[in-house]
Amino acid sequence: MAVQQGVPQHSGGMLAGWKFSNFKDGVFAEYFHVNDADMNLAKLPDEIPLPSAVMISDMMTTGFHGAELANIPIGGTVVVIGIGPVGLMAVAGATLRGAGRIFAVGSRPKCVEVAKSYGATDIINYRKGDIVEQILSRNGGQGADSVIIAGGSPQIMISAVKLARPGGTVANINYYGSGDIIPLPRTEWGCGMAHKDIRGGLCPGGRVRAERLIDVVKYHRVDPGRLVTHVFHGFDNMEKALMLMKDKPADLIKPVVLIDG
Amino acid sequence: MAVQQGVPQHSGGMLAGWKFSNFKDGVFAEYFHVNDADMNLAKLPDEIPLPSAVMISDMMTTGFHGAELANIPIGGTVVVIGIGPVGLMAVAGATLRGAGRIFAVGSRPKCVEVAKSYGATDIINYRKGDIVEQILSRNGGQGADSVIIAGGSPQIMISAVKLARPGGTVANINYYGSGDIIPLPRTEWGCGMAHKDIRGGLCPGGRVRAERLIDVVKYHRVDPGRLVTHVFHGFDNMEKALMLMKDKPADLIKPVVLIDG
Amino acid sequence: MAVQQGVPQHSGGMLAGWKFSNFKDGVFAEYFHVNDADMNLAKLPDEIPLPSAVMISDMMTTGFHGAELANIPIGGTVVVIGIGPVGLMAVAGATLRGAGRIFAVGSRPKCVEVAKSYGATDIINYRKGDIVEQILSRNGGQGADSVIIAGGSPQIMISAVKLARPGGTVANINYYGSGDIIPLPRTEWGCGMAHKDIRGGLCPGGRVRAERLIDVVKYHRVDPGRLVTHVFHGFDNMEKALMLMKDKPADLIKPVVLIDG
Amino acid sequence: MAVQQGVPQHSGGMLAGWKFSNFKDGVFAEYFHVNDADMNLAKLPDEIPLPSAVMISDMMTTGFHGAELANIPIGGTVVVIGIGPVGLMAVAGATLRGAGRIFAVGSRPKCVEVAKSYGATDIINYRKGDIVEQILSRNGGQGADSVIIAGGSPQIMISAVKLARPGGTVANINYYGSGDIIPLPRTEWGCGMAHKDIRGGLCPGGRVRAERLIDVVKYHRVDPGRLVTHVFHGFDNMEKALMLMKDKPADLIKPVVLIDG
Q1: Is A173 within 8 Å of chain D by CB?
Q2: What is the pLDDT of residues A232-247, one digit of tens each?
Q3: pLDDT of B261 over the 70 cut
Q4: A166 touches chain B (CB under 8 A)
Q5: CATH classification of the domain holding C63
Q6: Which domain does D84 fall in, by range?
Q7: Is C134 domain-assigned?
C-alpha cells in the first residue's frame, strides 16, 4: 500500500523498487520479466541518443531527486558532496531548481570539468583540508540552504549537518553499504532543535517521471550525455564495461553498452 | 502581524507592501523615507550593472514569484500568459525551477525574441486563434502542470483554468485594475472538484530575497539585463522614460533612468 | 497517468472517480462491478456500526478533505459554509486538524445542534444578514485563516474570498451544478495579489485512506453516526430513502438503507 | 536574517531564541528586559487560569511543534516517545492534528493517566521490553506514519527510525544535552534511501502563535491545566518549585509559582 502512502518506490517493502533491479535474476539477460511494465514505459524521441537515454532512467532521476528533496530556494546556496555520476546529476538538478552558488566537493579532473559545466561555481577538494572549513570560510561563515550527499561513508553525514544553516535541509541520495549507524553531530544539529531536516530517498520511477525527464533532455535544459565517457557495442562487452566501473580509470564517469540490432 | 503569518508583503494591511511604493508621496524624489530599511538593504556586487540591478528588485522578484507559486515539477509543462517584463521573468523563473516545455503567449517581436532566450520552447500568438485550443492541440490534448498569468484582463483566468491539468496550478502575478469579478470556468474547474489550485500573490521582498536574486545574476543563471531596452541618464529624463512606458514602442521592454553622480 | 501525478481521483479523466459512482449503471443493484476493487477494500472492525461505516466512505472523506485542503494551522480560525452532512464533516475535520474558533454557517436546527457537537464555536445564520459582515464583525474585523465551502451556488465564492485573510486559504468541496462561471471578487482577492489560495477537489479514496478514517472512528476521535438520522431496512426502501433526501424534512441529515441478510 | 529564512527561532544565531530564556541574566528576577516585546505579547482572556497560561508559552508550543513537524495524516498512526510535560503536549498535539492510533511510551502512573486523557490509545512501558518490538508487534508489523521524540538519550533515535514506516517522519523536540553524536540506524534508514525524514526544531514563539494557542485553550480543544500538579505562591517558593523539578516525585508533572499581587 506504499503507493497510496505516496512512496511507490517502497511498494512491496522498503526499497522494493531498488531490490527489483538489483536482486532479481536476469537483469543483464537478453530478456527480463517486468510486471506492470506499462506503468514505466515512455516513448523516447528520435533526437535523444541511446547513451543519454539510459542516463535518464537512473543517474538523472536519482541526482535530480537529491535536488528535489533538498528544498532549494531560488538563488539558494547549495553544497553537493560527491561528483560521481549521481553527484554530477545532483549538481545539474540544483541548477535546474534555481540554485545560486553551488559548492561541489570532489577531486577527479574529468568530474570537476563536468561539474562546472553543470553549474558548480566552487570546486572543493577534500584532499586540501576539511571540507566544512573550506566551504564555511568561502561562504562568509554561513551554512548552506541545502546540502546534497552523493557519496561517502556514513561519517560524511557529520560534515553535511555542519554545512547546513538552521532551517536548511540535508538530502541524501548516497547508498551506505556498511556500518551500523549514520551519525548526526549533536551540537551542530542544535542539540536536536536546529530545524535542519535530514532526508534521504530512493529515486522516483514511473512513466510520468520518465516523460518529464525526457523533456528536460529534449528541450536542452540538461545534457546527461556528458556523463557517458565510454561506449561499448554488443552483449559480449558487458563484462568489460562492468570491470571499468570497478577499476575507475581517471577519464571514466559512466560506461554504456549498446546492444545493437 | 502578517509577518508572523508568513506573508510580510501584507504587513499593515492587504497589499501594504505594494501600496508603500505606489501611494506614498516622494517615491520619485531625490530622497525618500523608508522605515526599517535595513530589512531590505543588500550589497550589490561590482560586477552587476545598475540597470540589471533595478530589474532584480521588481521584475525579477515578481516574475520568479509566479514560478514559485506555480508548483513546477522538474520537467513539467508550463504556460506563461503574457511576455511583458514580468512575464519574461516568469519564463526565466520557470526555466530556473526546471520546467521542460514552456509555452509563452505573446506577440511583440522583441518580447518573443527575449522569451526564447529565457527558455520558452513554444510561442503562442493570441492573434492567431484561441490560445487554449492552440496549446492543447500542440500538447496532445493534455493540460499543463502549471499556468502563470502575467498579463490580461480578468477574463484571462478562464483560459488559464482550462489550460491546467487536474492537479495542476494556476499562479497569478498579474494586477487586475478593473472589473468586479475574476471568473473561474465552472466546468473546467471540475464543478469545484478538479484539484486545480488558483494562487496569486504580491512579490516577496527583504534582504535575504535580494541576496539570493543577486546570486542568480552574479552566477550567470539569468541575465535580467535583456529586459532593459532603453537607458536614460539624469533626473530630468524621468518623465520621458515614464511616457515611453505609456506609449510602448515596438522595441521597448523596460526603460531605466540612471541618476548619475 | 493521474495516479502518478498525485491525483488518482482523476485517473482516466477529470472527475473519473466521481463519475464511476454516479454514471456507471447498476450502482444501486444487488451486485456491482468494481475494477481493481482490492485497492479500495478495507476491513471493518466489528465495533463500528454499519450506518457509521457508510458515512466514512463518502461524507467523512469529503468533509475531511475540505479540512485538509484548507491548510488549517493549530489554533487557526476557520469558517465552514454549509452544514449539510458534508459540511458537518468539514466542521469535524477542522476540529480534527486543530482549529481554534470555528464559524459554521447554517440554519436548520438539527444541523446546528450536530455542528456544535462537532466543534463549531459560532453559528452564523445567513437569514440574519450578510455572513461576511456577521463573521468579520465577531472576529474583530480579521479574516479567517481558512474558509471551507460545503454548500451554495457559485456566488458563495465571493463571500468565501472576502472571509479569508491575506495568506489564507479557501477550500471548496461543494459541487457546483450550474452556471458558466464561479466568481472571485477582484478587490478582496487583492487585484490578484492577496495570497489567498483557492483550492477544490474530489475526495480521496483508496484502502489506506479508508483504514485511516476507520481508525478515526474506532479510536473515538469523531463519531460520524450523528449524521445518520433515518435508518431503513431492505432493498425495497431504497426509493423511500432517496425521496427523503429530495424532500429534506427538518429532522433529516442523512438516511441509510441497510440491505440485511 | 533567520526571520526572513522562515526560522525566527534562530534569529541572531542557532538556538538564539532558546538561549534568550536560558542564558540571559535575570530571567527569574522581578523585572526582566525583553527587546521587541510587542512581537510576543498577547492578551490573555479572563477565563484562562494563570497556571494554564504559563503552560501555553512553553510546554504547549513545544509539544504541539512536535506534532506539526511530524506530518501527521488524518487517521495516521503516531508514536510519542516520552510523556513528561512536553511529551504529554505532543500526545495532545497529535490528537489535535487528527491522529488515529497513538502509542505513548512511558511508565509513571500520573503521566500515563494524563496521556490517556489527551488521546493516547496504547501505553508502552519500556521497562517491559524493547519498545520497537512491543509497538511493531501490536501494530501488525507496520511502522508508524509519525514518531515524535520527547525524551531520552541520543540512542533513542535508533528506536525512532525503526518505528517509522518508509515515507514516514521522525520529529524531535527533545533536548540532547550530552554525547558527540545522535545515531541513525543504517539498515532501517534504508541505507540512506527509506524516505524517513528526520526533523527537529525549537518551538515557535510570537504573538500570532500565542493567540492561536490561547484559542485552543479558550475553545476547550485541549486543557493544559492537567500538566500542573503543584501550585506555589510567592517569589520565595521559586527555589522549592525548582527543587521539585529536580527531585521528580511520583505525582509531579509540572510545578507553577504564582507571583501574586
Answers
A1: yes
A2: 999 899 999 999 999 9
A3: no
A4: no
A5: 3.40.50.720
A6: 70-200
A7: yes
